Amino acid sequence: MRFKFQMVALAASFGLAACNGSGGSSGATGGGLSAADARAVDTAYSAYESRIDNGDLTPTSPSGQAKMAGYMGIGNLGDDGELTALGELNMDVDFDAGTTTGKASNFALYSGDEMTREAGVSGALDVDGTVSGSSLTARATGAVSDGESPATVDVGLDGTFYDDNGTTLVQGEVAGTVTDDDSGDVTNVDGGFYATEN
User: Fold this and answer.
1) Could you read off the pLDDT of 123-182 as tens digits, one per residue?
2) Which end of the chain is more exposed for a tag (fewer CB within 10 A), N or C?
3) Architecture of 17-197 per CATH?
4) Under the phi-then-psi rule, with left for phi > 0, alpha for psi from -120 to 50, and beta for the rest, what region is 95?
5) Running DSSP on this structure, what letter comes out for residue 59?
6) 84, 71 in Cβ contact below 8 A?
7) Distance, CA of 82 to CA of 28 (rounded, Å)
8) DSSP 11
9) Cβ–Cβ contacts within 10 Å for residue 178, how many?
10) Which residues, at least 6 apart from 67, have a Cβ–Cβ distance to it below 8 Å?
11) Is 68 helix (H, G, I), strand (E, B) or coil?
């Protein structure tokens, strides 16, 4: 199954109303991963989920500092639910001070099981939060747009740190709101993320 982030439909929010039509590469602009890289992210997330479920990965409470990189996903976009937004997630985590900061950026839209890249999404989300033991709690906020419909994103990240054979992994859920800056409509959103220590 594509992107097991347990996400809800967003209709035309996240500033992506212009991308809800027939799709295709004609709307592809800006950054984002290639289709092959997006599929690899999907595979990696599913593998982490399976290892957490079967007990291969167990929670850990790290110390010191770590730079972590991974991905944030929001799926079931558009009227037909066939679009997925995927962006890169980078965080600086200070386990001793109990803080984390970072950015989610380089978003793009993908469709179908093959993760065909449909369009880039401009803008970035600032990540700011806290760390306590094996838990991460943060918010990601910022403005995004598909070039026609700007939106404001305000989501929470709720994750757990795991020890992956000596490498720190954080994996969790995303939930919050997206506000269409033109209409003022607010949509509740769900998603998922993961990041590993560089």
Assistant:
1) 999 999 999 999 999 999 999 987 777 889 899 999 999 999 999 999 999 888 888 899
2) N
3) Beta Barrel (2.40)
4) alpha
5) B
6) no
7) 16
8) B
9) 22
10) 90, 91, 92, 93, 197, 198
11) strand
Angle at CA 2, nearest 5°, toward 43 and 7? 115
CB atoms within 10 A of CB 96: 10
The rounded radius of gyration (Å) of the Cα atoms in the chain is: 16
DSSP string, 156-176: EEEEEEEEETTEEEEEEEEEE
In terms of phi and psi (left: phi > 0; alpha: psi -120 to 50; beta: otherwise), the region of 30 is left
User: Is the pLDDT at 35 greater than 80, yes or no?
Assistant: yes
Predicted TM-score (pTM) of this structure:
0.84
Sketch the domain layout of the chain as residue ranges.
17-197
User: Could you tell me the two tokens for 141?
Assistant: 């906020």
Q: Angle at Cα 12 formed by Cα 8 and Cα 13, nearest 5°?
A: 75
- pLDDT, one tens digit per residue, over 50-72 is 999 999 999 999 999 999 999 99
Give the count of alpha carbons within 13 A of 90, CB side only: 7
